[in-house]
Design brief:
With about 240 residues, the protein is α/β, with parallel strands linked by helices. Helices cover about 45% and strands about 15% of the residues. It contains 8 helices and 14 strands. Helix 3 packs antiparallel against helix 4. The radius of gyration is 18 Å and the shape is globular. About 0% of the residues have low confidence.
């Protein structure tokens, strides 16, 4: 099932690319390097991420090898990327094709790089996970702790300034996070000190969600809200919430 949906999106991206090349000849080399030279979705995505995250110390080839091995071991991460592209396509009325978030949306790129960091963290490679976190922060201005669990179909809209200290964000549906946003834990006596964000939540620009609280499904958190208490499903938060 995963492979079929991944291949379907990849075929669509390939088809779109052929049309895009006819529209802008100056980008023919770019499209070949980032899409057409690759045999599948996994290969193209690892190429894009490694070229953004690699540097003169830890090379592009080293980063790409790490990502390719993880994709090989866990296709769920690749499938999550496909669901993220679909979510971005469906949420953005001005996004006319799947190749746009795949190639250009730094929120999408930051999220896919975080998925690699999270995998490393869960497999006790904490130092490498933190290294990826740092590169994500430097390159995309998005800071997500490697322990943060992300579901499928996440949109980090525009992305710049998003900080997620620790959180659980949606398991299998769309969550939209606008920039800049802060999700973080607070030091307390609770076993869990971080927010849990359920499905179909929209987090507005400048919102802050802090502490061991839960945001229920289909909640819309308005811009600049400060949320310190749990919110039940189907609500709109339009003011500062006090504990």
């Amino acid at each position: 099932m995963f492979s079929e949906e991944i291949q379907l999106i990849w075929n669509q991206i390939l088809s779109e690319t052929q049309i895009l090349m006819d529209q802008e000849l100056e980008l023919v080399g770019f499209y070949h390097s980032y899409i057409l030279n690759h045999k599948n979705f996994d290969s193209a995505l690892s190429y894009i991420l490694s070229n953004k995250l690699g540097n003169e110390i830890v090379s592009v080839l080293s980063i790409r090898d790490i990502i390719n091995k993880i994709y090989c071991f866990n296709q769920n991460i690749v499938f999550a990327a496909v669901k993220d592209i679909q979510a971005a396509y469906n949420k953005h009325v001005d996004t006319e094709c799947y190749s746009i978030p795949f190639l250009y949306f730094k929120g999408f790129h930051a999220l896919q790089a975080h998925r690699i960091s999270h995998y490393l963290w869960n497999n006790d490679r904490h130092e490498l996970a933190i290294y990826f976190q740092n590169r994500i922060s430097v390159m995309f201005s998005v800071d997500i702790h490697p322990a943060t669990q992300m579901g499928n179909g996440i949109v980090l809209d525009h992305a710049t300034g998003i900080v997620i200290g620790t959180a659980d964000i949606a398991q299998d549906n769309v969550v939209t996070v606008h920039q800049p946003v802060l999700l973080d834990n607070i030091r307390s006596v609770y076993t869990k000190r971080y927010p849990i964000i359920n499905d179909d939540v929209v987090i507005g620009v400048g919102a802050k969600i802090l502490g061991p609280i839960e945001i229920g499904p289909r909640v819309n958190i308005s811009a600049n809200s400060v949320v310190l208490t749990s919110i039940t499903s189907n609500n709109i938060v339009i003011k500062v919430s006090d504990k």
